[in-house]
## 1
Amino acid sequence: MVEMIDGGVTTPQGFKATGVHCGVKYRSLDLGLLRSEVPAAAFCAYTSNKVKAAPVQLMIRDDSPTLSAVVVNSGNANALTGRRGMEDAQSMKDSVAIEFGIDPKEVGVMSTGLIGRFMDMHKIRYGISRAAGELQEGRDADAAFAEAVMTTDTIKKEAAARVRLTDGTLVYIGAISKGSGMIAPNMKVLQGTTLSVITTDAKLSPAFKPTWQGILDDTMNMVSVDGDQSTNDTCILLANGMAAGDYADEDPEFIEALTAIMEKLARTIAIDGEGATKLIQVEVINAATKDDARKVVKEIINSPLIKSAIFGSDPNYGRIMMAVGNSGAEFSLEDVHLTIKGGDMEVPILDSGAPVFQEERSVEVVRMAMDNKEVTIVVDLGVGSESAVGWGCDLTYDYVRINAEYAT
Amino acid sequence: MVEMIDGGVTTPQGFKATGVHCGVKYRSLDLGLLRSEVPAAAFCAYTSNKVKAAPVQLMIRDDSPTLSAVVVNSGNANALTGRRGMEDAQSMKDSVAIEFGIDPKEVGVMSTGLIGRFMDMHKIRYGISRAAGELQEGRDADAAFAEAVMTTDTIKKEAAARVRLTDGTLVYIGAISKGSGMIAPNMKVLQGTTLSVITTDAKLSPAFKPTWQGILDDTMNMVSVDGDQSTNDTCILLANGMAAGDYADEDPEFIEALTAIMEKLARTIAIDGEGATKLIQVEVINAATKDDARKVVKEIINSPLIKSAIFGSDPNYGRIMMAVGNSGAEFSLEDVHLTIKGGDMEVPILDSGAPVFQEERSVEVVRMAMDNKEVTIVVDLGVGSESAVGWGCDLTYDYVRINAEYAT
């Protein structure tokens, strides 16, 4: 029983945060700082893009098992910035470490924004020193931290949950995320530009890593706005254990709550995809393998033809089967069932390899289902028992406008 | 020495063609017919999408080594049409066979248009019978055939060449192609919706197949408008041998001419990509493997972020390196050189893993290079000696408009 609550990164015990404007961006908040009262077990996952931003490279190199603070800036990704970028990312860690009297390795660092420009470290250092003096708990602090991380995002992405563990301990999970464009994360623990910070006062051991990877693979790694994986994707889960109690590593209530939090963030990123007017949820069922199910989901949510059709509520469902055919998944066309859902409507499309609807008037039913803020495509491959769910958004005039003008 | 000439499918000896309007589409020509005086050695390549249109399935099943005629309709793809679709495709072959008194297996069939609607065979049969009586040679016939194949295409895609073979024989090659959206062909000989018909009066043996696959892999299979491979892609090369002379299978002049023809078609498809305002040519050099080089080309030409940036002449070249990093190709960032060319400008972008330009004024140079009808991106991976070239187009408001309204 997951109880979702109104909250953010400072909802769990022992976390404070803030967001300030230091001038990387012209207006809006651009530097966020989060502090845990005690060192928190850190579970970090990073982009699998071979071109990794400087802060990502640094975090992977340090591979610190615990973190006491996380600093994030928006407006500049510090990616493709060579040696100087590495020095700047290190300097961000150092500045925070000095403020709090901690080891720089205890400081998580994330950047997001334009790729290929050097950071203005005067602004960043000013921001860190100001933020360090303004840390707070509560919804205002949550909001400021969440806003400082945003780039082309139009909505704040927060989630929180309260969980009663099996041993009776009451723990909290709080989370923020950002991401609107260059979104197709494939983040790997141990080694996404969506940035996420999840805080919890539950206790977690290093053995939680594979479970964390599994949750990411089913949630954040199943979102795609444009199929372009960023150089900066990073997801940091901080567990400071201040709620006491047993390790929550295998606690089904905790895992369910964390999964629900991550799924909410993932859906919100898709809803807020650059220029998006609609959320597209794709469910693939009865696939031969989990990998097949995920491949079909991704082929559909990344197809510009399908995304454009959904934008226009154009019942061009043949494009969905085009994508299924390109996925590489195993199936026989005769056994595939395709259903499009929107609002109260649930419209079957395919029967024995041919469309159910042929006449213009009946095709209109499909258009009505597609003419909703949330469109769900269900593909039953009819060949096995594995399934996957993923989230994307429609391709709109605004996506083109935003990305034809980003650097300027 | 390839001599490109003004010509089309009836330029080589022994080919006649026409295009008629039979009513599948509201106006414009929608049925094309091509006839070879003698059976022509046929080299066919088809989409590798697992969901194959009925005519593609039929052609693969018959796998006829020679063809005497090719019938093509536009407006309806006869894809996702189940058993009835197969019957309709066979009926197209049969109708042509009856007109010419030949075996239905000797008739090539191709369809392009909307997916998931049954064909109106009354219209198609009327069209075939009319076209059979109107076959001609010459530029008007070429043009009618080329137009009958078009869907969202805005320009006719024709090419022709005259080649003096090593043995002195003078042969001709003529070609047409169509394709504007759902373009990311990966056509395989022996087993793309771009449809192409290439005619030649040269003599070719079955041993020419691997050479043909190689030419397709370097030309048509390196075009991408939207990364979505069609259910209908088909490419038919007909060699009727009427110029006499030796087999041209290994004739370097012939191979060079055919490659030039196919490259011209490929570039024209990219230029005429749905909504496109610019051609993007991507050259990857010094890759470890040919496969690496092709992967980098495709990752770049399929990135909606890069395509949108080029539409807006937005110098956001960080996105190019984002794509290189996602390609899976082997490289060290420090060794990579990136150059953007447009008009007379050739602008180096990366030096030792960091951008050359940092100031707004100098970045303006990149914008100027990008502000051309043809933009070339050169990625030197600095790790090997393999290379690849590919073609795509920008992502524009019109692409979204066209594809949000296609079925209607």
## 2
Amino acid sequence: MDMISDLNTSSRFLLGPGPSMVPPRVLRAMASPLVGHLDPEFLQLMQEEQTLLRLVFQTDNELTLALPGTGTSGMEAALCNFIEPGDAVLVASMGFFGERLAEIAGRYGAQVERLERPWGETFDPAEIEAALKARKYKLLALVHAETSTGALQTGIPEIASAAHAQGALVVLDTVTSLGGLPVEIDHWDVDVAYSAAQKSLSCPPGLAPITVSERARQALRQRKTPVANWYLDLNGLEKYWEAPHAYHHTAPISLHYALREGLRIVEEEGLEPRFARHRAFAEMLWEGLENLDLPLLIPLAQRLPTLSTPQIPPSIDDAAVRRRLLDEYNIEIAAGFGPLKGKIWRIGLMGHSSRREHVRLLLGALEDILASA
Amino acid sequence: MDMISDLNTSSRFLLGPGPSMVPPRVLRAMASPLVGHLDPEFLQLMQEEQTLLRLVFQTDNELTLALPGTGTSGMEAALCNFIEPGDAVLVASMGFFGERLAEIAGRYGAQVERLERPWGETFDPAEIEAALKARKYKLLALVHAETSTGALQTGIPEIASAAHAQGALVVLDTVTSLGGLPVEIDHWDVDVAYSAAQKSLSCPPGLAPITVSERARQALRQRKTPVANWYLDLNGLEKYWEAPHAYHHTAPISLHYALREGLRIVEEEGLEPRFARHRAFAEMLWEGLENLDLPLLIPLAQRLPTLSTPQIPPSIDDAAVRRRLLDEYNIEIAAGFGPLKGKIWRIGLMGHSSRREHVRLLLGALEDILASA
């Protein structure tokens, strides 16, 4: 067999939609020798992680933990635990991850109703409220920060209130918002929210934070059928995270070391200063992009500070520019896809990646490349 | 909120059923700065990981990869991709993980037939062959190395041959065998085998190696219904691992760095020397345990070299001894559970944990504690 060499990867500036750059403190924590997944010391770390997760989710929800999978496992857990075959589910979709919500809900036998906005737009909350009045749903699922477009759905409290008035649970995807802009689970009265470690929390991918309201736990207890997914069954997961700490799976110890350290960094910085930092460097990026004649797809009021999506003029070769950014400057940004393929770039400034020097470097590199294209 | 301190865990000797101790090289590789999950350099690493996984599974199966979850996600993937509602599934269970196979198969709507041996025993292959002749099954699932008892199921080639003669696929749990004793997927003609990174491969938990035969891929392609699990759907996973490398989930980059390095260590040591090492230190442990009047539960011919299960005399306080091992010697071993609760300990010598000094230390510590109990 061919010789497989020492790990020798390039030093990338990760300015795409995630993973973001991981702070050295987090990498160091992750490299600590392992203790067992039932070691009293590890159970203590899990509790601390829960405390820190409640802080970033701005919630008192007891059932708040990190699932042993990536963000998509969070999405699947948020759906499969609350859907039984035949349940009516409303998905408000404004991009790729809204479509994935609908797709996954369908796998669990839900009767899925899709409410759609074109990629790049967002919903007027009144539109979702009207749909909720038209039919009784078990659950409403929507995306707070759409990673495929860079759009932020506002009006979550009004939408949640309308859903609850009809008896529906609210599932919110906060993958690209948690830790980078306000996510106020209790204040907004969201029932289930999930995220991913590798975005604005700046940890390595492989864990999905999730928080579940008392209302949703009640619904879980009232199921008539077992959860149709063993690995992501919150009944088993909560018995591991809470007393009696019964074995469910072997937790990804090292990733929990990392997430706990990443959350400590969030807590030290403080949520408000952290959100302000993400906002300030996003604004610096936006101004620079406009100056390069790369206007932003999303109007200011719905624009994510964590993920910016400049439009690519037809004269520019999308793939060639990204390739040169990677090969010549070690900068990763991402392509658009679906209906936005070739039309936008996706530039993430999340967590440790949200820094002045990264914005300046990227703008300088783009300037060089566009001038010589 | 209470101050949450720097990560400051104890230096444990991990001699339980996993996680095993992670070599410094693997920890170091894991702490490397991240590249993106679609970076050409990462796609290259994934290919190398596949090559190394084929080596330890002793297979040429093209569809060989590491799932983004722990060993249980491997078990669930091995079942959910091949089961459709109403399918007849035979589970040969000789312990906790056999029972979990049956439980998970049931979640996917299988008509599950359980063939059972008491915990600690194994099957005569003829018994499974007879059951396969009695009814037509879509799939036979069984455990090669039962982590709850320390028993090794022998006769896998005969069992697989009998299953194929009846048209059934063979799913084999190799969680506690892969990398520590022979697992010969192609020679044995097993269709689906899965494992976990944190056992005899000595990597951090969070990835589940899996390999799938051409026969099983054919069955996957012939499904009438979508796989009832999105995250573990091999159709989506193979499109990410193979060209066109389409986005499915954000791979746990750091864990892949670790697994690739751990597999390189396996390749450098060589499979046969590695198996011999596991055997030699297991024998050293067994002799020492017998000398301490802690006879092994499993007869020699079915005994796992990776996980030993001494019986605890009634005079000994199971929990107190384990607590003293942990508190006074920083040694983790595990309790028995289910029908073996309080009756056995589970001592793992896997991967980097399988070393002379660990055996000597554990035997010495046990001797001290039992003398002063």
